Amino acid sequence: MVNGCVKYSMVIVTPSLPKSVRKTVLLIMSSCLSFKIFFIASIRVSTLSGEVLSDNTSLISAGCSLGAYHAVNFAFRYPHLFKKVIGISGRYDLTLQLPFFNDLFDSYWDENIYYNMPCQYIANLWDEGKIKLLQSLEIILVVGKEDAFLEINHQLSESLHKKNINNILYLMEGEAHKAAYWGKLMQICL
């Protein structure tokens, strides 16, 4: 627990949990600054080895800020696992130097970094099988019109559209990169 918040990097919520427990977990996460990614599943989670879920039509990857980066990157790399991805106030290229946000790799770049930066690899994606899987994914990106990550969100959305991968880019008034908005926005997007 950090500052009264449970620190999550991943949470799995399934219908097998009592409804009150699911609501409590989501409320804790939506009000906590330290959550990164969470998944909501109605059946069960498969492995990343490529096994197909018995029903992947209910799995959602979602996150805010750095959690949005992880949620989007994870869903794009493993689209067979998800029906939907939500990224709120996300930064989808951590190698860029931005006002108030450093290049998190200090100018280091290699193939591993490339394939984990959605703004870099989506623009150059030519694998028809992967594109088809991404086309079946509901993609929602949300960013404020005054957010530092506005241009990155536009770039990712445009790259997806160029590959005929539908996505919705919601632009909020002002700066939406604030935890106070994230819980409300997540509830709307879910």
What is the overall number of helices? 7
Q: Structural class, please?
A: alpha/beta
The CATH architecture is 3-Layer(aba) Sandwich
Q: How would you state the average pLDDT, rounded?
A: 75
CATH topology name: Rossmann fold
By CATH, the superfamily comes out as: Alpha/Beta hydrolase fold, catalytic domain
Number of domains: 1
CATH top level assignment: Alpha Beta
The total count of strands amounts to 6
**What is the percentage of strand-forming residues?**
5-15%
Give the biggest sheet.
6 strands, mixed
The Rg value, from CA coordinates, equals 16 Å
For the record, give the distance between the C-alpha atoms at the N and C termini, rounded to a whole number. 26 Å
Instruction: Give the overall shape, derived from the CA principal axes.
Output: globular
Helix content: 25-40%
Element-by-element helix/strand order? EHEEHEHHHEHEH
Low-confidence stretches: 1-18, 20-50
Physical arrangement of strands within the biggest beta sheet = 1-2-3-4-5-6
Descriptive terms for the model:
190 residues; globular; disordered N terminus; six-stranded mixed β-sheet; 6 strands; alpha/beta; Rossmann fold; 34% helix; 7 helices
Overall description:
A 6-stranded mixed beta sheet has the order 1-2-3-4-5-6, with helices on both faces. By secondary structure, it is an alpha/beta fold. The protein has helices spanning 19-30, 66-77, 111-114, 118-121, 128-135, 150-162, 179-189, and strands at 12-13, 37-40, 60-64, 84-88, 138-144, 168-172. It has a single domain, classed as Alpha/Beta hydrolase fold, catalytic domain (Rossmann fold). The longest helix has 13 residues, at 150-162. Helix 2 links the parallel strand 3 and strand 4.
